[in-house]
Design a protein that fits this description.
homodimer; 587 residues; alpha/beta; Rossmann fold; GMP Synthetase, Chain A, domain 3; 3 domains; nine-stranded mixed sheet; eight-stranded mixed sheet; 20 helices
Chain lengths: 587, 587
């Protein structure tokens, strides 16, 4: 019994209430409802019970079980010429879960993946939880060193590795071995319809034959409580120190539904996978698509040609992508007019209005959402108001670039002063930190009680993003807390400077960071990648910014080069900050 | 503290597991997950917490709080010339909740209503839970005797009464007084834009001034646990003994989302209230519409003219209604072609194909759902498959009349043998009982532990409805368990006989019940209401049935008269059964 008690302590003990003062009325209100979670005071309500007939822990596993019945003959997955129905997907997932347990996986064990958006990734999102285990989807851009660190931190027992990434995994295994750590069991994911030379290492498995060895009659392991972990998502590395964000079954279920609502999905959507599945579990849509009988169109490589081909062939209705994906589409020679509307959800960074405008001309209808790994992906969206339809285009794009309002899975998103926890006035000017609270906020950072405590200090999840709140309640992000440039005592939103840079006809990509300055403290430093065939000088860029911004906000330095990015398309500002620092003071 | 412990016992004790044997593998599987609800065995998952930042009890109150921000200027309610925005609705609900507490309402107290689909009903659905209280919406067709019984059973402290139903409430109060029971406080709901003579009874309140006395700064009382009761729905009386079905906040939240999905609602739907709000809390849509910023079009009287006028003026997108409402529409001289598609959800009884066909010609797109008061209203729907688009019309209507498959808020709907609990084969022939399990099944029957236990015996909620399961997994209801006619040892589905009766051109409404018979045990007896201007003989009806059914299924008796109905349009077969019994044996 002892390990049961050990585990209950961190999950259920509200350490929180003892340490934190609640300054505002609003927070005190929360307290009442949360402190008495298991206590109620109904007087004469006899005859009420909780039993299997009327209670089940929320879990996205139920979406798949239902899909196998309701949408049994609908296409669940398409990948080139490969197709599965929901019935087939269900049976494959049961067998895969069974195979995992045959290999010794038990409740709470971690199973890792290192793979792009191939069908196995979709299956593992169900099969691993169905074995009672926790899915840890590793970023495919990581190198062997990082993978070895994360495998060690997560204590993964098995890792599923795409055939193109075997060398990365092997490198990580070598590093683990050097440190006397036993590497996980490796299961290779072969490309569909190809034969690979049999692995020379006998200790590895191959995905299809591994799955085939599972028992189709395996009894699925449902979570014991709905707050049991379902996955670990290591933050993608805009900072240099990744943290293991833990999701639970309840949050995954609720965020899947709320995210589908954000996407405007009703029945039988067809979703093109340009968002990495390893990132926030594909915004929880891998789970959600099962609830609506949707089709997952898998894509190994995200290129404009592949995107347009798949939209046409598979009659894609929805897709998502970081602004860099949108940028890639509008600047590609493969771009074409779409034969039907495609709902495009963009997130990760505010989409520059110039790109928004161009992509909508092609037939995409872009919605803007915002969230963090810690909020299961999407947490807010810029909900469109019908009265905006008649506004000038420029005004529409400006409104749409805002992060908006919380989806219905959350209790509240607010902009608050990081110290006093006071809500900032809805004046569009006062900057505060975006904060979240609700069921679609992570359980915490794996094995990092201090980081968890800091993230939740004050009863809210602190995003680290700076924003203003507009009169209509919509939130607009101004910068990452650590990205903001403070020059001569003035806050400069790097996002605002970047928006102007993107309007310059020669600029393909831009990022602004702080450069240390002996006089001003910091000055804005722009890193710019030009479009092919264009040539401009630093001074031209600076002048352009001075024409469109208050002078103190214009960059003092412009560096032309390729920008370092995460696999999800986010520019890695911490690398640029290091570079700007290395430049030294301007004067 | 003692009352806290008293309350915990009935809610949390799984009395269930001790008494019931689980015959099938499937049930044993449920056991595992439910018995260990609060226990898990994660080993090294340190750093995880539950706190106000990442946990809130699910409650539809959150939908309204969000709507007040996200949809603040959108129309929440329309009622003739009266309109409120979501911001206004929110403020009014807060004040109403405050006014309730000023009158002494505390957690767990019951607040009753006796009113048609007027705006006050929508507000009370939020305001009563926001005061921590439990809403009990009484059927507007009940007489004073029934109301007095239900007020006494529910122990309601306050009752909100529509001005047209004051006499019913007063009659009930008199009956309570005769029995030395203190009647609840009465709050009159006046018609908008009218003045009524001031009540001669000084102890009553008037809705608008009562609400105005509330404090807009009142701190909303969220539920302490998400399984706290939110409402009591007395079953509508197809049986003569009503039971108080208790809903909880979690179920209301989850069923609201699932029901919106059934309706195909995305953003800003406009819903016409022909379904009584007092019935299953309007299928949980009163709560759900707040999540999507929808508009509630209120309707005091359901008439074809009012329906068509409101559809046009308010650009209604969705509505619902029992087959009798559909019947009323297609047989009305006020019917007209719709200017735009309206999604129409029908439920309560299988819609006769002939009516389905006619109403779709007018521009309604009909979907068929099924559920019971005990399942928060809708639990299944006949999910349409695109491949059915190309089938012959007759075949389409036949498919659509089936009850279908569970929505995603439930774990499972199945057809099982009532005794062995074995799932029946999916052969379209073997009859069993429709059973439900999942989070959108009631907490139980108020103060009726025995009835609760019986309803949940075997780990499923037993609907009492008989059905077959088709090869595609779709359920088709054949009859109520107690409605089926057993003649010469053969089961006769009264639904099948009624379907044939509705196809007769002279028949407006029909219901079949068992008539006792000395020779056959029972014979089918049809009660028929003819369309205006039509005249046919019993023999003609009997011959028509013999032409379209096996002879043993054709009615032996036909009675022409008006059919007794509940306010939700369900025919009250228990009254007809009494009448058929009074006829005595045929031979």
């Amino acid at each position: 019994m002892s390990h049961l008690f050990r585990r209950r302590t961190p999950i259920n003990r509200p350490w929180f209430f003892k340490k934190v003062e609640y300054p505002s009325e609003n927070s005190r209100r929360l307290c009442e409802s949360a402190e008495n979670l298991e206590v109620s005071s109904w007087k004469s309500m006899k005859g009420l019970v909780r039993c299997p007939a009327n209670y089940a822990p929320l879990s996205p596993i139920s979406f798949l079980e239902r899909a196998a019945k309701v949408y049994r003959d609908r296409t669940s997955v398409v990948y080139g010429s490969l197709k599965f129905t929901w019935k087939e997907t269900f049976v494959r997932c049961v067998k895969l879960a069974s195979a995992l347990t045959q290999l010794g996986i038990s409740r709470g064990d971690v199973v890792a993946t290192l793979a792009p958006n191939v069908p196995a990734m979709q299956e593992l999102h169900f099969a691993v939880p169905m074995a009672g285990a926790v899915l840890c989807t590793l970023n495919t851009r990581h190198d062997s060193t990082m993978i070895s660190v994360l495998l060690r931190h997560s204590e993964a027992k098995i890792i599923f590795v795409d055939h193109q990434l075997l060398h990365v995994a092997r490198g990580a295994f070598d590093l683990l071995a050097e440190n006397y750590v036993k590497p996980p069991i490796l299961v290779r994911i072969r490309e569909h319809n190809t034969t690979h030379p049999t692995s020379s290492v006998s200790s590895t498995y191959e995905y299809e034959s591994f799955l085939a060895g599972g028992d189709a009659e395996f009894v699925v392991r449902r979570p014991r409580t709905e707050r049991d972990p379902i996955s670990i998502n290591y933050t993608s590395g805009t900072t240099s120190r990744p943290k293991g964000v833990v999701y639970n079954h309840r949050g995954a279920y609720l965020n899947a539904l709320a995210t589908m609502s954000l996407h405007g999905m009703i029945s039988l959507p067809v979703y093109l996978w340009t968002v990495p599945m390893f990132h926030c579990n594909g915004w929880c849509l891998i789970w959600g698509l099962a609830a609506l009988g949707g089709t997952n169109v898998c894509l190994r490589h995200v290129s404009p040609k592949e995107i347009f081909d798949n939209i046409v062939v598979n009659q894609v209705t929805h897709m998502g992508g970081a602004p860099t994906v949108l940028n890639m589409i509008v600047n590609s020679s493969d771009r074409k007019q779409l034969p039907h509307k495609v709902e495009m959800m963009t997130g990760g960074a505010p989409p520059p209005p110039s790109i928004l405008s161009k992509i909508e001309e092609l037939g995409f209808r872009v919605s803007h959402l915002y969230g963090l790994t810690e909020t299961y992906g999407p947490g807010t969206s810029c909900v469109w108001k019908p009265e905006w339809d008649s506004l000038p285009r420029e005004e529409q794009l400006r409104l749409k670039a805002r992060q908006g309002v919380e989806h219905y899975g959350l209790e509240e998103v607010d902009v608050r002063d990081s110290v006093t926890m006071e809500s900032v006035p809805a004046d569009g000017v006062t900057i505060g930190e975006i904060m979240f609270r609700g069921n679609t906020v992570m359980s915490g950072y794996l094995k990092d009680e201090k980081a968890t405590e800091e993230a939740f200090a004050g009863g809210w999840f602190r995003s680290g993003d700076l924003a203003v709140k507009h009169e209509d309640g919509y939130v607009e992000m101004k910068d990452r807390l650590k990205d903001i440039v403070i020059s001569g005592g003035e806050n400069i939103s790097t996002v605002e400077v970047e928006t102007v840079l993107y309007r310059h006809p020669a600029v393909l990509e831009a990022a602004v960071v702080a450069r240390p300055d002996n006089h001003w403290g910091q000055t804005p430093c722009a890193f710019v990648k030009l479009k092919e065939g264009f040539e401009v000088s630093s001074q031209e860029i600076i002048d352009f910014c001075r024409d469109h911004l208050p002078h103190y906000m214009a960059p003092r330095t412009v560096v032309f080069e390729d920008l370092p990015k995460t696999s999800t398309g986010k520019i890695q500002k911490f690398i640029l900050r290091e570079k700007a620092k290395a430049l030294g003071s301007l004067f």
